[in-house]
Amino acid sequence: MAGICINETLRDDELVAILAKLESDKDKEVFGLVCKRWLHLQSTERKKLCARAGPHMLRKMAARFTRLHELDLSQSVGRSFYPGVTDADLSVIASAFTYLRVLTLHNCKGITDAGMVAIGSGLSCLQCLDVSYCRKIRDKGLSAVAEGCNDLRSLYLAGCRFVTDALLISLSKNCHNLEELGLQGCTNITESGLGILVDGCQKIKQLDINKCSNVGDIGISRVTKACSSSLKTLKLLDCYKLGDKSILSVAKFCKNLETLIIGGCRNITDESIKSLAASLSHNLKILRMDWCLNVSDSSLKCIFSQCRNLEVLDIGCCEDVSDAAFHGLAGEGSVLGLKVLKVSNCPKITVAGIAMLLECCSFLEYLDVRSCPHVTKVGCDEAGLQFPKFCKVNFTGSLAEPDVLI
């Protein structure tokens, strides 16, 4: 046995099987350091890569990583470089990375419709594309992606302000398997476009139209009806035209919804929130409704008593909410599963209300009580409040907020 060489004994497929059993990326990198043969096998089996490279290096990467499925060329906001990813780079990617399924170009400000047309013509297997904050992209380029990548499942377009209903029409015609669509800040999107979108895309699980100010009740009602069984996440932050009709439609049709963001929708009242709590009592996990100024204690009582699986709740700036919302919680004999609660800028909530809440929220991990004039650290200490062991209490804004509500 002393004279046996592992490279002479094991076939390539056997070495690949060993590589597949390595769980961490670090161990896989070490595997490639053994010798050139092992490096070649590690490279050809690699599925995911994050890089910053121009056309010449991209061609070299394509020759080495022949089965790459995920490519991330994103730029960070604070460390962007010029010119960054260009249309020429995307042409190389489209012709060389034929197995690509996921392409992330977040914040790549230099790319235009020409690059998107190349992606649409070359990457027919693409399933996920993130071009958030690529501000030069318009309907023409993205429509080319929709027409060429018919199996597209996820498309993220946050901050792409030139996108209009024309793209939604193209998605409806070509991408019937679409499951996630991010349109945050795409202010040219209208409710008419949303209606056309869901005529063809009825498998949507996650829809983000935060800050799409032209969307109203009609558009959301059409979405909830068409995607009733699939929709799990709906984000409507600062869609100020929305009212109770939208939320009542969500309550009626979307029984599987887990996340609802309606912060800043100031026309929403207790009527629809109570209906929502009753209809989604088992599935709702995240609810953000800060700045919903017409929501009062009665809505909160319904949420606390019925939504027993709720983990995250934001009622910041809901000025009518008071300690009365927490009355009787402990008396019901059950423990709430809340992990994150934000009650900042709620002037009617006091230390007494927080005390009632703590009696049945033993899993709380983050509590935001900023700008609550009657809830201070000194007041909580004097009242002898016992917060859960790992709970972070934000009294002054010094703590980082959880990103679950973004």
Distance between the termini: 59 Å
Q: Uncertain regions: pLDDT < 50 for 5+ in a row?
A: none
- Overall mean pLDDT score? 91
Q: How much helix, percentage-wise, in residues? A: 25-40%
Q: Key features?
A:
single chain; 406 residues; alpha/beta; 16 helices; 10% strand
Describe the protein's architecture and organization.
The protein has helices at residues 6-9, 12-20, 25-31, 36-45, 55-64, 87-96, 113-122, 139-148, 165-174, 191-200, 217-226, 244-253, 270-279, 297-306, 351-358, 377-382; strands at residues 48-50, 70-72, 102-104, 128-130, 154-156, 180-182, 206-208, 233-235, 259-261, 286-288, 312-314, 340-342, 366-368, 392-394. With 406 residues, the protein is α/β, with parallel strands linked by helices. The chain has a 14-stranded parallel β-sheet, with no helix packed on it. Helix 12 (244-253) packs parallel to helix 13. The chain is globular, with a radius of gyration of 25 Å.
Topology summary:
Blueprint lengths: L5 H4 L2 H9 L4 H7 L4 H10 L2 E3 L4 H10 L5 E3 L14 H10 L5 E3 L8 H10 L5 E3 L8 H10 L5 E3 L8 H10 L5 E3 L8 H10 L5 E3 L8 H10 L6 E3 L8 H10 L5 E3 L8 H10 L6 E3 L8 H10 L5 E3 L25 E3 L8 H8 L7 E3 L8 H6 L9 E3 L12
Parallel strand pairs: 1-2, 2-3, 3-4, 4-5, 5-6, 6-7, 7-8, 8-9, 9-10, 10-11, 11-12, 12-13, 13-14
Helix pairs in contact: 2-4, 5-6, 6-7, 7-8, 8-9, 9-10, 10-11, 11-12, 12-13, 13-14
In short, what is this structure?
The chain has helices spanning 6-9, 12-20, 25-31, 36-45, 55-64, 87-96, 113-122, 139-148, 165-174, 191-200, 217-226, 244-253, 270-279, 297-306, 351-358, 377-382; strands at residues 48-50, 70-72, 102-104, 128-130, 154-156, 180-182, 206-208, 233-235, 259-261, 286-288, 312-314, 340-342, 366-368, 392-394. It is of the alpha/beta class. The longest helix has 10 residues, at 36-45.
